[in-house]
Amino acid sequence: MIEHMETIDEFLAHRTADVEQAVREAAATEIMPRFRQLAAHEVDQKSGPHDLVTDADRKAEEYLTGVLGKLLPGSVVVGEEAVHANPASYEALQGEAPVWIVDPVDGTRQFVHGDPGFCTLVALAQRGVVLASWTYAPVRDQLATAVRGRGALLDGERLLAGAPDPGRDLEVATSHPDYTTDDQKRALLGLRTQGVSPRPCGSAGLEYLAVARGELDAVAFSWEAAWDHAAGLLLVEEAGGAHLTLTGEPFRITGGNTLPFTAARDAATTRRVLELLSGGA
């Protein structure tokens, strides 16, 4: 088993293109052929009508699990669909082995309805620290990557989120009300104030990409699933942004966070959104 961070650094220095290829191939072989072509028997509900899974999710995750494990011997995969089938597999995030965190189709509801607003998310983490991430929007053929300490790229061009323009409303994407507790709803109500324009989020991965590009000022989310957040949070960080939970601490992919939390395009905006959430809590 790979035990030393130097080994992973070497992997990240020389093999990130192999991960990119795997993500693109998973989308090309298992996701895009099913886009707007799904039969009724290829779509199922998990916890409710807003929580869907398709054959594209399952097959793309199986593909990535097989390839990523071989690319980095000793690593393990925590995928959304595998965890749904075996919740105990999520505990690998707490272990010593490098972990691939996979969301094969982030925005499954959009995918099912023929909306192009979905993506594939892959992140590599160890001991709770996200080291690299890949966000691929196959309909747009856009690939965003980030490596901790080395910056974020979109199709090879450097991403810099920058600060919001002064004097205009902050645009914030927020959790769907169906996925919030009463306390979280009250906290999110803090964003309904002058100078802020909240809206429901779409694909979490694409919302994070919008923050990293400076097209969206912040997100405010109320759930912890690592596959939804790991890739995007690193992308935002490496583009110059920041993230904080209600306790003022950065979000932990291993869990135990006080929710909701925010990620924003710069530190000042992160603090402002956090203050509004704390005032509503």
From TrEMBL:
Biological process according to GO: inositol metabolic process; phosphatidylinositol phosphate biosynthetic process; signal transduction
SUPFAM superfamilies (alphabetical): Carbohydrate phosphatase
GO MF annotation: an example: metal ion binding
EC numbers: 3.1.3.25
Keyword set includes Metal-binding: yes
Superkingdom of the source species: Bacteria
Keywords for this protein: Hydrolase, Magnesium, Metal-binding
Chain sites annotated for binding Mg(2+): 80, 103, 106, 228
Catalytic activity entry: a myo-inositol phosphate + H2O = myo-inositol + phosphate
InterPro entries per UniProt: Inositol_monoP_metal-BS, Inositol_monophosphatase-like, Inositol_monophosphatase_CS
Names of required cofactors: Mg(2+)
Protein name: inositol-phosphate phosphatase
